Amino acid sequence: MTREAEDPAPDPRAATAVGGCLYAALLAGGLLWLWSRDRLGILPERAIGAHGAPLAAAAGLAVGLAGAGLAAVASRRSARLRGIEAKVRGMFASIAEAPQFALVVGGAIAEEVFFRLAAQDALGLVGSVAAYVLLTTTTAGWLWLPVAALHATALGLLMHCGFGLLGSTTANAVLNYLSLRRIVSS
Fold it and tell me: Which of 33, 35, 89, 130 lies in the 20 to 30 Å Cα band around 116?
């Protein structure tokens, strides 16, 4: 029996739809959490952040590029990370680039609203990092814990330091897009 017969590639349309639904639920959950705590009003004030759009976008771009570079170096040095990346490649290789891009951007928005806006507002920086780490390691495995902790801390610090959702979402999208392109093309 061949490897493809044992573990068929997911249907790209189904995988994209499932991902889109999960991110929509995460976004709705973050907004509902804010609304239930009567904190929905922080969304406009924290969307851009205290430093303005150009600095928020530049900080997010810098963190995203640095994270993608760090991820590439770490992958070359860690067989464990290459194993995780092989699973990611299997999930995303059959999905066209445009839906991949849409999932990355939609996922970045949903994650940042939930974790960096709603969770960080309710639980603080440490609590939001812990929530992110717990959720992602239960789906990606415990080997992912240090990567998830570094990722969540970097994005949480962008928000904490006043670069708003624009900074953290830009960093998340750039890091994830560049990493996904590297993983799928390898």
Answer: 89
